[in-house]
Design goal:
- The chain has about 260 residues and is mainly α.
- The protein contains 10 helices and 2 strands.
- A hairpin with a 2-residue loop joins strand 1 and strand 2.
- The longest helix has 15 residues, at about 25-40.
Length: about 260
Amino acid sequence: MKRTLPYLNLSQFEPDSDFKKLFAPHASWALPQLAAVLGSELKLERNSDGKFTFTQALKAIKEAFSDGVLVDHCTLGLNDAKGILAILTCSPRGNLLYNAQTSPQGIRWAASVPIFPSIFKQHRNIPYSDWDWTDKNKSFLLDQYFCDYSDNFYKPTEYSREELLEIRETALIVKSGSKEGTRRKIESCTSVYGHRDPTFASLPKLLQLSLCQLWIFYTPFRHEYMITNHMDLDSPSIPLVDGEVFEASPPPFKVNKGIVWDEIH
């Protein structure tokens, strides 16, 4: 069977599915196809404030898939739409991707990219700043790590460049085990380890990483669909270190158990 979205049987996906086994091997072709379908089929509308909302987007998904979306001579329905939402909200993001998120294949879909809004930035030139990030129903279209990150959009943090570099350097030093005293690679440091600032510790994981420009937020890995600057969503953050140009974990979060269409209002 031709490898298009119907090949995946989208209706099989639930929030607790084994995405590493069922989806990741197909991610390189499935994610671009999914983006093309949603980017062309959904009728998004601005609210009275001129913003796009996740609530209206969910209604647009329900409307489109209730009528049936034709893909490669197959009709995708609401059960397929529920599977798509499970994919969009899969967390952590690495479960979706066969390649490392810092690889050329994975970086477009890395955890610093809000997959659903990025589709419309790519296909319709809708900037991230045109979305209402306070919409409670964003949890049905964003993974939980990104929901937590977006809760802090446009909220300033009081850290100087020097303070962030100090926190970053502390995070890069291995504190225990056989490699104690060695330095982690910036692109491999997936958490901000070792800091003792309780205010910084309370920040969401992705915001901590973006402020310190670690892992996928390391500036050589920049991609146009990433959000690296939580104060200006469509502009990249300024590198903490000149020359780095383009080339403590937060509390556990609750897993989204899936959408109930009639509850969207």
